[in-house]
Amino acid sequence: MSTHTSAATAGGAGSLLSGLEIRRIDWSRLRVLAGLISPLLLLVVWALAVRAHWFTEQILVPPAAVLDAFEEVWDSGELPDGLKISLYRLAAGFALGSLSGLALGTLLATSRQAQIYIGPTFNALRQVPTLALTPMFILIFGIGETLKIAIILKATLFPVAIATVEAVRDIPRAYLEVGRALRLPPWTQFRRILFPASVPPILTGVRIALGRSWMVLVAVELLAADTGIGQLMEIGRQMLRIDIVMVGVIVTGLIGFSLDRGLRLLEWALLPWKRP
Amino acid sequence: MTAMKNFVCWVALACGLMAGIASTETSAADPQTIRIAAVAMQVAGKPGYMAAAQYVSEDQTLLAELEKRHVRLEWIPISPTSVAALVNEDFTSHRIDFAFYGDLPSVILNASGFQTRLVAPGNLGNNVYLVVPPTSTAKSIADLKGKRIALHRGRPWEVSFGKLVASNGLKVTDFKIVNLNPQAGASALVAGSVDAFFTLDDAYLLSDRNVGRIIWSSHRAPVDWKMRAELWGTREFVEQHPDLTQLLVNSELRAVAWISQEQNRSRYIKDLADRYGYPQSVVQRDSDNANISWKDYWSPLYTPSVTQHYEAVVAYARSANLIRSDVDVKTLIVPTFVREGLKQLSLDHYWVAQATP
Predict the structure, then answer these.
(1) Shortest alpha-carbon distance between residue B155 and chain A (Å)
(2) Which of A31, A37, B55, B181 could bond to B255 as cystine, CB 3.0-4.6 Å?
(3) Are A239 and B177 inside 8 Å of each other by CB?
(4) Which residues, numbered 11 to 70 in chain A, qualify as contacts with chain B under a Cβ-Cβ cut-off of 8 Å?
(5) All residues at 6 or more sequence positions from B111 whose CB lies less than 8 Å from its CB, including other chains
């Protein structure tokens, strides 16, 4: 959310200043700085709210206390251990989910039979919110690692599969015909035509799926887990340690942000023709 | 123009926010309502409160006296799934003045800097249970070393669990504690995801359905191993409105005096079972404390064992890293209301202070 606003601010400021004929500044660097405005503003509002005692100190802890809590849970190993296990769950569930999503999506897009037989079930299942499946998943998978991986698999599979279906279907007929007319071997057709044409929308789907999986994972860890970043936050809440909860919120946000950035970098590296 | 509009919007929003905050502050200081939170089971859409709280909520004498002063009593039912966190959050955000709830969360709250006071002890405490799946070979807590145990952290029975574990020469960290609320803990036990479940009298519901086996309960343990849940008030309210606090404490005393009479015992058990939607036999077995008489069980006296109990809670919370600063138990306990109330109700010779076994 905050990155959106900041990007908009940066764009607005950019066009305004360039109108003033200041052109020697490297805008790409300033844009990064402009992205810091909204988090800093948030920090200022937070500090002010603490000062003005808008809420009791147990509920709204000062930023410095959150920093202390961060050091505390980092040094005690709770945070690194929680992160390690959460990221492992994410990696396992996400790898399984996106691979099967890719396979299922390709199948649905290329085979009429698959579309007829699996299509309706697929479309019905994808309407069920992942978190709503938690109680049922707990009964089936228990509360161990399988539960979290299954939940992430569900959260990843559908967006990736849908993106794949659309991507494959939207490849312009003309491209395929050119390939056929030139009698390109199948591998070349895939490498030069199918892959470049379908990868961008699929990657977007994967990126959305990754963000969603991370959120869902943290939410499930809040409900049913013995470890992980979500559980660290839940225990913090039970102990009335809102500083620890805040550490969890901030770390979760930063990780979600970095994951998204990481995939954008991947897009940039994989799709050289898409670079601005 | 739009900038101007935006500015006006922001100012309006800010004013609204401040007004909102101001109004919550005045209502907190407003003695026109007393807001009490209590654990409640929702049966047929009606909240049924724990132990004596139900009788306080129905006490016509209290309601009449409050009405004379134009004070309204507002009850906030708290779901048993997460009492500790919910009540503490309600206290810190000034949504309640009193709460019937447990020992450990009260200590956690006071360690955070928010001050509450124990104004009336409830009873000697609820029994706690260790349940394993019926097929388990475990016979004692020692057999469960290294195994997964469902336990809701920060709830009062965590302290009892700590005592049980320590008495067997073990540490809480010798077990894989799975932090689950009692409902989820029961499901986890039935689904076989945990090797044991530490809980309250809902243990009987599992054992009666043959999905769990109770291998230990606090019935035979020292009395202090039970978990206490009683009437707490914010320091602010108790100090600013001692007269209203006294009325509330008197009502609690009337309730426990009635319950504690042997001839009312079965009636109490039946009513509690109905309110909770439990079979009567569950409440019956849970309340069957062989080493304490029914009357003494309901004693509201501040015996030294109350202080010792809370000191043990603080010590456990410190050792388990649940709190960072010490809590002075003596400041938490305000015995004046009970002393005065017993006198007013001519009950000052009804209970005799005795060292609990």
Answers:
(1) 8
(2) B55
(3) no
(4) 54-59
(5) B317, B323, B324, B325, B326, B327
Is domain B129-217 in CATH 3.10.20.30, yes or no? no
Domain ranges of chain B: 28-124+227-344, 129-217
For chain B, the helix, strand and coil percentages under 3-state DSSP, each to the nearest 5: 50, 15, 30
Nearest Cβ partner for B108 among A55, A56, A240: A240
- pTM for this one? 0.77
Helices (H), chain A: 2-19, 27-34, 37-51, 63-75, 78-110, 112-125, 134-141, 145-169, 173-181, 186-188, 195-223, 229-238, 242-270
Q: Are A217 and A148 in contact (CB under 8 A)?
A: yes
Q: From first to last of its 357 residues, what are the pLDDT tens digits of chain B?
A: 445 555 554 555 554 444 444 444 433 444 789 999 999 988 777 788 888 999 999 999 999 999 988 999 999 999 888 899 999 999 998 999 999 999 999 999 999 889 999 999 989 999 999 999 999 999 999 999 999 999 998 999 999 999 999 999 999 989 999 888 888 889 889 888 899 999 999 999 999 999 999 999 999 899 999 999 999 999 999 999 999 999 999 999 999 999 999 999 999 999 999 888 889 999 999 999 888 999 999 999 999 999 999 999 999 999 988 888 889 999 999 999 999 999 999 998 899 875 444
Q: B28-124+227-344 — its CATH code?
A: 3.40.190.10
Options 1.10.10.10, 3.30.1490.20, 3.30.1280.10, 1.10.3720.10; which CATH number does A61-274 get? Answer: 1.10.3720.10
The CA-CA-CA angle for residues B92, B95, B101, to 5°, reads 70
Alpha-carbon Rg for chain A, nearest whole angstrom, is 23
B interface with A, Cβ–Cβ < 8 A, is 17, 21, 82, 84-85, 88-89, 92-94, 108-109, 112-114, 148, 152-155, 176-180, 184, 187-188, 191-194, 322-323
**Sole residue written with tokens 């991947």:** A266
**Placement of tokens 């620890």 in the chain:** A244
Q: How far is A140 from chain B (nearest CA, A)?
A: 8
Strand ranges (DSSP E) for chain B? 33-43, 46-49, 72-78, 98-102, 116-120, 129-132, 148-150, 176-178, 196-199, 213-217, 229-234
A271 to chain B, any CB pair closer than 8 A? The answer is no
**CA distance to partner chain A, nearest, from residue B52 (Å):** 25
Q: Which of B227, B242, B193, B190 is nearest to B211 (CA)?
A: B190
Task: Calculate the CA dihedral of residues A141, A145, A148, A152 and round it to 10 degrees.
Answer: -110
Residue type, B320: A
Strand partners, B75: B36
